[in-house]
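Your task
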Amino acid sequence: MRQSHDAYDPALIRRVLTETRTIALVGASPNPDRASHHVMAFLLARGYRVIPVNPGLAGQTLQGQPVYARLADLPEPVDMVEIFRSSDAAGGVVDEALALPQPPRFIWMQIGVRDDAAAERAEDQGCVVVMDRCPVIEISLKLSIRHVS
């Protein structure tokens, strides 16, 4: 089902963040000054399983988690793919996610990342898409969501 991406119902954001357990974080960085590093630490601390994806770091560990080169290399299905790449690169990441044997239920594009055509492709495949939002902000300021594994 297609939705407007200009504003999100808080109930939808809550649903995405409470039903998600495992997240592939595409564009994960070892640099503590990068937003993706902070977001990964935040999500791990709240009980999410976060799998970093970064071809330049594949085979290494990041925040105690093994890093994979691409989504197709993941050892398990994920509930959400979070995209820390430019808007120009987001469509390719979405297509890679949709090609997985078990595509994610949710695709989340970080603040500043938006690709409406990719969102339509994902929604046509049954994914819920959130764009130009940060889960840290949504969890911290709006929803008081905390996972307990």
About this structure: Residues 87-98 form the longest helix (12 residues). The chain has five helices and seven strands. The chain has one domain: 10-143.
